[in-house]
Amino acid sequence: MNDCIFCKIIAKEITSYKVYEDKYTFAFLDISPVNPGHILVTPKNHIKNIEEADEKTLCQIMRTIKKIGKALKDGMKAESYNVMENNDPIAGQIIPHLHFHIIPRKKDDGLILWPQKEYNKGEAEKISEKIKNALHKN
Ligand code: 5GP
Ligand code: ZN
Q1: What distance in angstroms lies between residue 2's CA and the mean position of ligand 1's atoms?
Q2: Comparing 136 with 64, which gets the higher pLDDT?
Q3: Under a CB-based contact definition with an 8 Å cutoff, are residues 6 and 24 in contact?
């Protein structure tokens, strides 16, 4: 048995406020919510990040995200929600078991998203080429 905290939550060895589960996914309240009703959606299998997840798993996760989003709007009177995933530690992933954050939003709730930058001249073209070339190798 691995010592992944989310695997333990999914196996119900650690308690959580579960809101939904099906054959492939498990959704529960984040213990430290950005806003009340902040949900984490995880695959039941221990998968580290998006690249390790197969297409079926990703589709199942997105299906659950859609259900939860609707429930946040209907049940929490959320006007909107953010879906976020911190993919690997440099991006802020602390728990190495893939999970998507669904954060309910209300107008003027004070949550500020990331600051944005501008491209230098010619930079966007070079960057888009690098990404397109890498995609062709997949
Ligand atoms: P990450 O930074 O990996 O994307 O997010 C991990 C999230 O898991 C954090 O928002 C944190 O509050 C939440 N979390 C960490 N430990 C527990 C726990 O034991 N139970 C629950 N419900 N959430 C947890
Ligand atoms: Zn795990």
Answers
A1: 17
A2: 64
A3: no
